[in-house]
Amino acid sequence: MAQRTDVTRALAEWIVDCDIAKIPEAVQQEGVRTFVNWLGCAVGGARHETVDRALDALTQFSGAPTSTVIGRGERLDALHTALINGISSHVLDYDDTHLKTIIHPAGPVASAALAVAERHGISGRELLNAMIVGVEVECRIGNSVYPDHYDRGWHITGTAGVFGAAAAVGRLLKLDVQKMVWALGLAATQSSNLREMFGTMTKSFHPGRAAQNGAASAYLAAAGYDSSNQGIEAPRGFANVLSTKQDYNEILGGLGETWEAALNSYKPFACGIVIHPTIDGCIQLRNETGVGANEVEAIELRAHPLVLELTGKREPKTGLESKFSVFHSAACALVRGDGSPTAFTDEAVNDPTLIALRRKVHVTTDPNVHEASVDIVLKLKDGRTIEKKIERAIGSHEKPLSNAQIEAKFRGQAAPVIGAELCDKLLATAWKLPSLGKASEVTAASVPTPVQLATA
Questions:
Q1: Confidence at 5, pLDDT banded by 50, 70, 90
Q2: Handedness of CA 320, 55, 411, 397 (dihedral sign)
Q3: What is the pLDDT of residue 41?
């Protein structure tokens, strides 16, 4: 098959041409849900030590303070704000997921687009348009190289996310086609992030840096800074260097007719997505049986090999590590009925009851089990055996979270950080994104007063 040379340009043409009127209403509504979910995650992670340390290190290098750090109030230049908000929105591992690729779409895209929209006084409607386009771009590029790209060790949220951020900010800056081509090329040469970093602070750095680099790509292109015109498809471009799979029909096929942005899903549990069936099943077993940890002989799981590959940390030492431990997650779900951020803290990791129980969790891998499924066998000391099969977990595309569940998730994260009153105000503002005169109404509503911080 002949090497295509028009992928980057064709994609750039679509990005420039795709105004909000060309986006179906259902996709726009999903875009708002994506934004609301992302915002709750950003506020929920705003006071995490990872964010504190990033600000301590990098605030000294910020330029003019034009954009707001969500849920905190510090103001930095747009690029550093994109970085910090990208970190905070992902640090709890509670953000959205494009299940076909395991990309977390909003982290890179919304973090960049909102920081830039605030800087330039852009409306909520324009922000929504840019965000949907950016999500579509990153997910389609992700589809074109998945799973080989991911299997090789690249963290696809960062590597594909930089394109989404460049596309979204490029729309906000009203780049023409040639400059959008350059922006995508600049994004391609900054595509990075390694799965080796999972379980550390650096994992959340990935969507943050993708947001920052994608926005920088658009600003550079706006200034006439050129790049290759085939940054995605050239023999030494993104797809050929970072993957052995290159399916460009995944990028251009049905573009503007079918929407990856409509397939986004929202996590009910604050950890790696492949653990969700196990948590869902163990919570159900807890609710149905009421068993205590001292009654359990063993918890046996039959799961896809990816579960152990991604979340096989048997003895996590920190809260961040525990997000990649199916053993800890199963134990915490069965004993505490918890899969929220409170299940993945240093305190939970060091709980003697959970330590003892997670050592009774045994995983058998089977490639015939779907990645989104699990078979659970709960063996009790009195000889009883209880089985539970989860075909698809809550929060999956088949069992999506409702708006009410997204709101409950938002409040559960944000209220402890900024207080219940401000949380409700921010949530109401976020749902009104398409009608906001300025997107900065969202960032302004996220900033707590000293009194709100004291009562949070």
A1: confident
A2: negative
A3: 98
pLDDT of residue 455: 72
Give residue for tokens 């920081």.
Answer: 115
Q: Of 362, 364, 338, nearest to 351 (Cα)?
A: 338
pLDDT at 88 over 90: yes
- For the record, the structure tokens of 147 come out as 């799973």
Question: φ and ψ at 29, to 5 degrees?
Answer: -65, -40
Inter-axis angle of helices 403-418 and 420-431, nearest 10: 140
**Residues 6 or more apart from 235 whose CB is under 8 A from it?**
3
| pTM value surpassing 0.85 | yes
- Residue 255: strand pairing partners: 258
Phi, psi of 242 (to 5 degrees): -100, 5
Average pLDDT score over residue span 382-395? 97
Which whole-number Å values give the CA distances from 246 to 28, 194, 214, 238, 261, in the listed order? 29, 20, 22, 10, 21
DSSP 6: -
| Beta strand 265-266 pairing with 96-97 | antiparallel
**3-class secondary structure, 431:** helix
How many residues are there in the chain?
Answer: 456
Domains along the chain?
7-266 (1.10.4100.10), 273-390 (3.30.1330.120)
CB atoms inside a 10 Å sphere around CB 5: 12
Which of 386, 387, 395 shows the shortest CA–CA distance to 276?
A: 395
Strands 374-380 and 361-365: unpaired
Encode pLDDT of 112-128 as tens digits: 999 999 999 999 999 99
Q: Which helix (H) or strand (E) holds 302?
A: strand 296-303
